[in-house]
DNA sequence: ATGGCATCTAACAGATGA
């Protein structure tokens, strides 16, 4: 079974590229972030023609997540509220969480807030959102029937080896110690980095800035992740970042990450 | 250091992203 994650930076702008990528990489599950479209306008038909089921949780202009899958999901949920209750509904105004059980695996697709800059109002929102996520995952673990895979755009480089030039990044968004601590705290509930099972060295990135030739100069960050619980981690046979679509015309600024179980 | 690039919108300038 293959599970992939890809921040597409607008599904309507990237629809043809996602189709082309799926034709070459017929993964079982593809988690998408930054779909940037309301549910009524999600372009589901071309993916259905390819044989993929679609579930999505979107909004106008910003954020938005979706899961494409060869088999239909069981127990799909959108947002935090299904597990955290009505008091979490404010957190669901931004569409950043969607999950379902696919071929026996609970896949949680996440678009973690960017955070703007350290100290910004949005930075506080990011840290508080991660605290909500921890509560949500604790609820999920309590009710768990299946192994759990967390994947998505985390907007956090967990370690210095995940940044092209890590020196002096303590105060940088995506690398600050509080962000890294919040992520580590969540992972301590029982998840490990699928990519790092196979590639311990630096120089592997999933996002490159559009500006200043970030991709051509390989000035990247590894901020898109697939986290596996211990059972899935043991089952993982490969995990790769596919840089190819980042080199296409009009690309997303993120590359897909794929794990094989 | 700054800005650079891309996408979106009751758009054509401003917000957001990371």
Describe it:
The structure is a single chain. The chain has helices spanning 11-24, 45-49, 81-84, 121-142, 177-187, 230-235; strands at 2-7, 29-33, 53-57, 65-69, 74-78, 97-102, 105-111, 148-153, 191-193, 207-208, 220-221, 224-229, 238-241, 257-260. With 261 residues, the chain is of the alpha+beta class. It has a single domain, classed as Endonuclease/exonuclease/phosphatase (Deoxyribonuclease I, Chain A, 4-Layer Sandwich). A 6-stranded mixed beta sheet has the order 3-4-2-1-14-13, with no helix packed on it. It has a 6-stranded mixed beta sheet with strand order 5-6-7-8-12-9. A two-stranded antiparallel ribbon has the order 10-11. It starts with a strand and ends with a strand. It binds one DNA strand of 18 nucleotides through loops.
Can you summarize this structure?
The chain is of the alpha+beta class.
Strands, helices and their partners?
Blueprint: E1 2-7, H1 11-24, E2 29-33, H2 45-49, E3 53-57, E4 65-69, E5 74-78, H3 81-84, E6 97-102, E7 105-111, H4 121-142, E8 148-153, H5 177-187, E9 191-193, E10 207-208, E11 220-221, E12 224-229, H6 230-235, E13 238-241, E14 257-260
Parallel strand pairs: 1-2, 7-8
Antiparallel strand pairs: 1-14, 2-4, 3-4, 5-6, 6-7, 8-12, 9-12, 10-11, 13-14
The protein binds one DNA strand of 18 nucleotides through loops.
